[in-house]
Specification:
By secondary structure, the protein is α/β, with parallel strands linked by helices. Helices cover about 40% and strands about 15% of the residues. It has a domain of about 180 residues: 3-Layer(aba) Sandwich (Rossmann fold), CATH 3.40.50.720. It is built from nine helices and twelve strands. The longest helix is centred in the N-terminal third of the chain and has 22 residues. It is globular, with a radius of gyration of 19 Å.
């Protein structure tokens, strides 16, 4: 099976390469090798390689910066997926796995979002990802395209909340200061190794349509920050964790509005994938243990 992977230099791309099955011929591309903002380059890459799958793990993920760069976010998150889908349609073969996000929801539902619930994004980032979802399913249909939504992704490499909090815990604890972290945004942290396993199962089982994957459980950003400090101390990564104060979203304004509740119902996808998720705290422990 020949797989074209985008976003190879990112945190998910790194996990996918690390866990790549031996039977897969993986062609891993990063931004330097394939500029996702260039739809023609995306089309040309598919035409040249004729992959069995395009695993589109690359994305514009700077949520706040997207408010200032809507055209770039749209090009990477919506136009590139459409270009991949149209190129595969032109070939008449090959399938597409598009990675998406819980930010396609507005957070007003109050109970876990199902895969069939309507997307209603609050900001530019979520809107661009929602258009990418719609494009691949429109062009290829649910037999040849799979959209896999995830939430609060983090891992041992790249730029993510977990690694940022580790640095802040160390700095604030050394200074005798507290961390202030938003407590009224609720979702589920998801470690990259778990999502990578789900991706490979999509390809192995030829799963299509709209799917969702996160770790198990529920957390606020405050809960996550506290757990990062506690687990890092337990593993000897930090000598001391900083005190964490819960604050409201209103006390920490950002350019982009975030959903206050973005927990996803992943039960149907877990059954289809044949995978049982870790509780998010177990996933956190695994990630932190891998960087000790």
């Amino acid at each position: 099976m020949r797989v074209l992977l985008t976003g190879a230099g990112g945190q998910l791309g790194t996990a996918l390469q690390k866990s790549c099955p031996g039977a897969v011929e993986l062609i891993a591309t990063d931004q330097a090798e394939l500029d996702l903002s260039d739809a023609k380059a995306c089309t040309a890459m598919v035409a040249a390689l004729k992959p069995d799958w395009v695993l589109n793990g690359g994305a514009y993920t700077a949520v706040d910066r997207a408010e200032e760069q809507p055209q770039l976010a749209e090009a990477v998150n919506a136009a590139a997926p459409r270009a991949f889908a149209e190129a595969l349609a032109e070939l008449g073969s090959g399938r597409l796995l598009q990675i998406s996000t819980d930010f396609v929801f507005n957070g007003q539902q109050g109970h876990p979002y199902g895969a069939d619930d309507r997307a209603a994004p609050l900001g530019v980032y979520g809107a661009s990802k929602a258009r990418g979802e719609a494009a691949v399913l429109e062009v290829l249909g649910s037999k040849r395209a799979c959209v896999l939504r995830t939430s609060w992704l983090y891992g041992p490499v790249g730029k993510n909340f977990c690694l940022t909090m580790l640095k802040l815990h160390a700095a604030k604890a050394a200074a005798g200061e507290a961390l202030n972290v938003v407590a009224d945004q609720v979702g589920c942290p998801t470690h990259t190794a778990g999502l990578a396993a789900a991706c490979w199962q999509v390809l192995a089982r030829d799963i299509g349509g709209m799917q969702q994957w996160s770790d198990a459980g529920v957390a606020s950003w405050y809960d996550f920050a506290v757990a990062i400090g506690e687990e890092a101390v337990a593993l000897g990564i930090l000598a001391t964790a900083a005190k964490v104060n819960p604050i409201s979203t209103a006390e920490y304004p950002t350019p982009a509005q975030r959903p206050s509740y973005s927990l996803m119902d992943c039960s149907a996808s877990r059954k289809a994938l044949g995978l049982e998720p870790l509780h998010w705290r177990q996933g956190l422990r695994q990630v932190l243990a891998s960087i000790t």
